[in-house]
Design brief:
The complex is a heterodimer of chains A (878) and B (115).
Chain A: H1 3-8, H2 10-34, H3 39-50, H4 53-63, H5 67-85, H6 87-116, E1 127-134, E2 138-141, H7 145-154, E3 158-173, E4 178-185, H8 189-193, E5 199-200, E6 215-218, H9 220-227, E7 237-240, E8 243-250, E9 263-266, E10 284-289, H10 295-312, H11 314-317, E11 320-326, H12 327-332, H13 335-367, H14 369-377, H15 382-418, H16 433-456, H17 463-468, H18 478-510, E12 521-527, H19 536-552, E13 556-562, E14 573-577, E15 590-596, H20 600-604, E16 608-611, E17 625-629, H21 630-637, E18 646-649, E19 657-663, E20 681-686, H22 692-699, E21 703-708, H23 712-722, E22 731-737, H24 738-744, H25 747-781, H26 783-791, H27 796-832, H28 841-867, H29 871-877
Helix pairs in contact in A: 2-3, 5-15, 6-13, 6-15, 6-16, 13-16, 13-18, 13-25, 15-16, 18-25, 18-27, 18-28, 19-22, 25-28, 26-29, 27-28
Chain B: H1 12-22, E1 26-27, H2 28-38, H3 47-59, E2 63-69, E3 75-81, H4 83-114
Antiparallel strand pairs in B: 1-3, 2-3
Helix pairs in contact in B: 1-4
Classes of the chains: A alpha+beta (878), B alpha+beta (115).
Chain lengths: 878, 115
């Protein structure tokens, strides 16, 4: 028989045991009678010989080896019975725990999907991304295309290397004109990642060359959208950017390279000038480590190659190193610390919930002291009682955990959808065995946490005292209860002060001047008709047409072109210097360059500090005019008037340019992040002064910015129709109201504030309930004493003061401990969230009185009740 | 029955039970009786510890049990040795034998030394 068979057939086994022993007794009696004993004497002797029958049975049960399980079941049933007796207590405890563990499980589900699960590529741990690195500007830079080839041929530690960059354009046939996000990828990209195509093939090396026949791999969703998923899509022609591409493959559903794209084209076919420019670091590189190579070895080799390139091409590569990072880190990006921070915060809430339940259970354990003493007197061992208490708390903990998992199942998707911006690897966020294991572990840990204190109170000594002492408790639980209150208050302080710090930060950031007027501005990318992109003359004409039509459109006040727009993804950093000698490349200061049309100043409402902004006279053929922001003026000219001075810009055909004006700094990187960004100087150059090749290149990425007199998004749709162009194939995409972009730049801060606010509120409520419970209990214990005091002349006030004094002490200690924790939490927040100042006294000054008042209010109710004690009945209770 | 009764050395009860059961299927009462008779009353098994021992051995798979009728027509639980139990009996009996031989040797040597 298996152990579970034995367990299930318990009743039968009991019957058999009974029968076996009866047989033994009967045989013995018969024999004794045969030997001449009187029947009753024979009975007696036989029983004596066997010993206590119940004891023998008990030992036989022990011998079965399933005793612990039977006990567990028994304890379990007992626990259910006792909990059912007090449904209020049970449901409060379970709900509290379910909230805590549900929130924790949601956070863990997200962390599991985003951070812990391996990426969905074969042997994903071998995949790395490569980045350029300089002392001054960090290690987030890409490669130049020639560099990519250098590393591809030189590296031995990387089995294969692939490159990609952003692309995109208008597809006109088959079907309607539509702007597609695209990627230019090198021929090895799909095979390096180990991603099999759904149909067709990836690019061949000979297709990854200038002049090769245009071929494309399209996304699964484009395949479904435009070709209905038909296998005939392969070998069909797609008119993309006025060129006919042959579709050779279909990428798998959900495939993404920093966001989803619809069309992949061979990178090597591009004839853009920047493909040959060793100073244009726009290529993203990823590689797969050879199977026996570590990341550190690859890193060493990369640095060696980087030093060689620095000697070979000092004008671009001096001081430039290369770093390799696991691809998983790249995919996950910067959400990792935020996720851990949130898990930490919900753990605090869970901890408060545990402490709450612990104090409830402890109060109950004290009132059950006599019951436990009685059990012990009847022969239960202490270990057995501890086990029974722990079983009870586990029943609570695991029911709470199970309900928590239900909450998590319901809550995880709303939570993910509230995440500011897009959370990476959303598709991997699912409830799996890891999550369930985590939830189970958390429940068991919590059960131990809140069950241990009451369990260890199972009486060890002074049994008879416990039995005799009636309803009054023997040992004082005051210290333990005080500890609970202190812990709850401290945890609540940490959470609410953190929320306070975040709130203060958000208020401060919102009050910052973005440097321009975000109200009533609409920005959108314009994909010109592919026909207009053929050459720069056509492109210039097309842009004039766009500006004209937009300017005359009802509701539009002014309109301008810009290549980058503040607070939206996208940047164009350029090296500059103010003296004729160019500093070494790794020392060259960088500025954010915006290519704009002259109306940009009005559209954006940027303040002009000195000189003039760009105007219509700044055209090709004239000396290049630049406008700088006050940051650059400060950095490069130290207070002297920069207007009229020359400025050299890297990669400009006619250097130097002439500074014609100074404008205020624009918080390009968002309200919060701008202060932390590495590139903070800004330069404006007129679109009309660009040489032809640059116009052609920029025309595929330009945006329009429109100042409207109506709500900007109301203008968006009619404007889109107005700007469809003569061929009807000109499209607007990435359409945003500037206000929305500005507000989105604080989305993370706002999101965290919301969550911390909720956590702090929960913590406050839970802690109040806990304080109320503990004080009610402690005060009840003191009723006879209070009665005596009142009989001796103490008034209502004295009693209230007595009780409040007791809780005040605990609360103050809790706040003290909490302040230390909150200081640490503030430092942590400062590291993780842009724009936070940890030593924010006002957060403490506001939140702590709130807590103090709430906690005192929670203790006031028991205090008042105590003051109404009737001295006579209280003394009788003694 | 005048000889003094000995307490069982620790751990020998299991061995003795195995040996008795090895002679053929037998019920608990009969085991108690045989132990007492065969040892000529020297060894008296406290009946209270016999049954837990039987259940323990059954649980360990050394014994198996069936309900059968006795000569008197009553149902009783008959224990028999499993293959595992037989192996266990052989190894334990052998090791006991070695122990006894060794003790006898030592005792014999001591006598010789005194002579």
């Amino acid at each position: 028989m298996n152990w579970w068979q034995r367990l299930w057939r318990r009743k039968q086994m009991e019957e058999e045991l009974e029968k076996e022993l009866r047989f033994h007794l009967d045989e013995h009696v018969n024999q004794l009678i045969a030997q001449g004993y009187a029947p009753d004497l024979a009975q007696r002797n036989a029983r004596l010989a066997l010993g206590g029958q119940e004891q023998v049975k008990e030992e036989c049960r022990d011998a079965r080896g399933t005793r612990w399980l039977e006990d567990l079941l028994q304890d379990f049933r007992y626990a259910l019975r006792t909990l059912r007796l007090r449904p209020g207590f049970a449901s409060v405890a379970i709900l509290t725990l379910a909230l805590g563990s549900g929130a924790t499980t949601v956070m863990f589900t997200v962390i599991n999907g985003v951070l812990l699960k391996p990426l969905a590529y074969p042997e994903a741990d071998q995949l790395v991304t490569l980045h350029g690195k300089t002392e001054k500007y960090g290690d987030q830079w890409g490669f130049s295309y020639p560099e990519f080839h250098d590393y591809q041929s030189a590296s031995r530690t990387l089995g294969s290397v692939a490159a990609w960059t952003y692309g995109g354009g208008t597809v006109t046939k088959p079907g309607e004109a539509e702007y597609l996000f695209g990627r230019h990828v090198s021929s090895g990209l799909f095979s390096v990642l180990g991603v099999p195509l759904v149909a067709g093939r990836a690019f061949l090396p000979q297709e990854d060359q200038p002049g090769a026949a245009p071929v494309a791999v399209i996304s699964y969703s484009l395949w479904q959208r435009r070709f209905g998923g038909s296998p005939q899509a392969i070998e069909q022609q797609l008119i993309f950017e006025a060129k006919s591409y042959t579709i050779v493959g279909i990428a798998p559903a959900g495939f993404r390279l920093d966001g989803e794209a619809d069309i992949y084209t061979p990178l090597g076919q591009s004839t853009e000038p920047r493909m040959r420019d060793r100073g244009a670091f726009f290529i993203h590189v990823l590689g797969r480590l050879q199977s026996n190579v570590t990341l550190a070895q690859a890193q060493t080799e990369l640095s060696v190659i980087a030093r060689r390139l620095a000697m070979q091409y000092p004008e671009n590569n001096q001081g430039r190193d290369m770093v390799a990072r696991p691809l998983s880190r790249e995919v996950v990006g910067d959400v990792q610390p935020t996720l851990w921070l949130l898990l930490g915060a919900v753990s605090l809430v869970l901890l408060i919930a545990c402490v709450n339940v612990a104090s409830l259970l402890l109060a109950r354990a004290v009132s059950r002291e006599r019951e436990l003493a009685m059990r012990m007197a009847l022969g239960a061992s202490r270990g057995r009682l501890v086990r029974q208490c722990l079983t009870e708390s586990s029943v609570l903990g695991i029911s709470g955990g199970a309900l928590g998992v239900v909450f998590a199942v319901v809550g995880v998707h709303p939570f993910v959808s509230l995440w500011p911006g897009s959370l990476p690897r959303v598709e991997d966020i699912q409830l799996d065995w890891r999550v369930l294991l985590f939830a189970l572990g958390v429940s068991i840990l919590c059960s131990l946490l809140f069950g241990l204190a009451p369990a260890l109170r199972a009486p060890a000594r002074k049994l008879e005292h416990a039995l005799r002492s009636g309803s009054r408790s023997l040992g004082s639980t005051r210290r333990l209860h005080s500890l609970f209150v202190v812990a709850e208050v401290a945890l609540a302080v940490v959470l609410s002060v953190s929320a306070g710090i975040l709130a203060r930060t958000l208020v401060r950031l919102l009050s910052l001047d973005p440097g321009f007027n975000t109200r009533n501005v609409l920005v959108a990318h314009v994909a010109l008709s592919p026909a207009a992109l053929e050459n720069s003359t056509k492109a210039r004409a097309a842009w004039e047409d766009v500006l004209d039509r937009a300017r005359r459109f009802p509701g539009v006040q002014s309109v301008a072109l810009a290549d980058v727009v503040p607070m939206r993804v996208g940047e164009d950093a350029v090296g500059y210097w103010a003296t004729p000698v160019q500093p070494p490349p790794d020392q060259t200061p960088l500025a954010l360059m915006s290519i704009v049309t002259p109306d940009y100043l009005n559209v954006m409402g940027i303040s002009l500090r000195r000189g003039r902004f760009l105007n219509e006279q700044d055209r090709t053929g004239h000396e290049i005019a630049v406008v700088i922001d006050n940051n650059l003026a400060q950095h490069a000219f130290r207070g002297s008037d920069p207007v009229g001075k020359p400025l050299w810009l890297q990669g400009m055909p006619s250097n130097p340019a002439r500074i014609v004006g100074v404008v205020g700094h624009v918080r390009h990187w968002g309200l919060a992040s701008d202060d932390q960004s590495r590139v903070r100087d800004q330069i404006y150059v007129s679109f009309y002064q660009l040489p032809d090749p640059l116009v052609s290149f920029l025309s595929s990425v330009m945006s329009i910015a429109v100042r409207t007199s109506l709500a900007p998004l109301n203008v968006a749709e009619p404007l889109r129709r107005e700007l469809r162009g003569p061929g009807g194939d000109q499209t607007l995409y990435d359409v945003h109201a500037m206000d929305d972009l500005a507000s989105a730049s604080l989305a993370r801060q706002r999101f965290l504030l919301w969550l911390f606010g909720i956590f702090a509120g929960l913590a406050l409520v839970l802690a109040s309930i806990g304080i109320y419970g503990v004080l009610t209990y402690l005060t009840n214990q003191r009723v006879p004493e209070i009665g005596l005091r009142m009989a001796l002349g103490a008034g209502t006030r004295n009693v209230i003061r007595l009780v409040l004094g007791q809780s005040f002490g605990m609360i103050v200690v809790g706040i003290g401990v909490g302040i230390l924790g909150a200081l640490a939490a503030g430092r942590l927040l400062q590291h993780l969230v842009d724009g936070i100042r940890p030593a924010d006294l006002s957060a403490f000054a506001i939140m702590i009185p709130v807590l103090l008042v709430t906690a005192l209010f929670a203790s006031f109710i028991p205090a008042r009740r105590a003051s109404r004690v009737d001295p006579i009945s209280a003394l009788r209770q003694e | 029955m005048t000889a003094p009764k000995s307490d069982l050395p620790q751990g020998t009860l299991d061995l003795l039970i195995l040996k008795v059961v090895a002679l053929g299927p037998v019920h608990g009462y009969a085991i108690a009786q045989s132990l007492e008779q065969v040892s000529r009353g020297v060894i008296q098994v406290p009946e209270g510890s016999l049954y837990p021992a039987l259940h323990r051995l059954e649980n360990r798979g050394l014994l198996a049990a069936d309900w059968k009728e006795t000569e008197t027509g009553r149902e009783a639980k008959f224990y028999r040795l499993t293959r595992k139990g037989r192996n266990q009996l052989e190894t334990e009996a052998a090791s006991w034998q070695r122990l006894i031989d060794a003790i006898a040797l030592i005792l014999g040597m001591a006598n010789g030394g005194a002579r």
